[in-house]
Design brief:
The protein has helices spanning about 25-45, 50-60, 70, 80-85, 180-185, 245-250; strands at about 10-15, 20-25, 90-100, 105-110, 120-130, 145-150, 190-200, 210-215, 220, 230-235. It is an alpha+beta fold and about 270 residues long. The protein folds into two domains: about 1-85, no CATH class; about 85-250, Sandwich (Jelly Rolls), CATH 2.60.120.380. It is globular, with a radius of gyration of 21 Å.
Length: about 270
């Protein structure tokens, strides 16, 4: 959602007669929402892709206490600093790149080496771009992603099990859901996935997302599947760990790169 003006606070444009005229509507809401993404690019430079900027807008949307079916992803934040500045006890991590068809990609979720006390909130937004089959509305997108969340690398069902146990994240159902269930509950073929989970800090140890790229064409196997671009935003919020950001930076100093503004960011109080 974005503000498109109202009778009390409209947008003003120059009319054909050269005079200012008041206007409202979604035609103004869209560019006004885009303004925040443009601001992020101005602050950080070209380091973030357009897809990552889209994921960031959705990731940081404000839902307030409104039902999801009424406000969608929520209201786009108006100021760039609201999108990129980490609040106390919070760290935002950005992944971006390409995924190969049929492959698995692991995206580690950075957490401190020490066990985090209390509850921890993990929020993730995954966006990708794909070709479409416009003549086939049932199988419209040609790409889909399946995501497995592995919260604790030391917990395995069997002693010889190679990978840690996984849990549902973007869907609330079974890990062994059918194709129809994955479409309905996990939004398997949708190009945007977003979820938020609260769990005990002690249940997280080197957590990660494993992402699998499925390609199709006309509802069947793809003949020549291509790599697709993706962007993943992950936020960790641990209210009882005041220096969470610094701990993560110290632990992953050779893995993660801090995003540094190329111009000064004003701090609003």
């Amino acid at each position: 959602m974005g503000f498109g003006g109202c009778p009390e606070s409209p947008f003003f444009v120059i009319g054909q007669n050269g005079r200012a005229q008041s206007r409202i509507g979604t035609s103004f809401a869209s560019p006004y929402a885009l303004r925040a993404a443009v601001g992020v690019r101005a602050f950080l430079g070209p380091v973030l892709s357009p897809l990552a900027l889209k994921a960031l807008l959705i990731h940081r949307c404000d839902v307030s206490d409104h039902p999801r079916h009424e406000v969608g992803w929520g209201r786009v934040r108006q100021h760039a600093e609201e999108l990129i500045v980490c609040e106390d006890s919070t760290a935002h991590i950005v992944y971006q790149g390409e995924i190969s068809p049929g492959s698995w990609m692991r995206a580690p979720i950075p957490v401190p080496a020490e066990v985090m006390q209390g509850n921890v909130e993990v929020t993730a937004t995954l966006c990708f771009a794909t070709d479409t089959d416009p003549q086939d509305p049932i199988n419209y997108t040609r790409s889909g992603l399946e995501v497995r969340f592995r919260p604790h690398d030391g917990k395995k069902k069997a002693e010889k099990q190679k990978e840690a146990n996984s849990k549902p994240y973007f869907n609330a159902g079974s890990l062994y859901a059918s194709e129809s269930e994955l479409r309905a509950d996990a939004h398997k073929w949708e190009t945007t996935l977003h979820a938020r989970k609260v769990m005990r800090g002690s249940s997280l140890s080197n957590p990660s997302f494993d992402i699998h790229y499925n390609a199709r064409e006309g509802g069947g196997p793809a003949r020549t599947p291509q790599n697709i671009p993706y962007a993943l935003i992950v936020s960790i919020h641990a209210p009882r760990v005041k220096d969470l950001y610094d701990r993560i930076v110290r632990r992953y100093r050779t893995v993660l790169e801090s995003l540094r503004p190329v111009i000064e960011i004003p701090i609003r109080r």
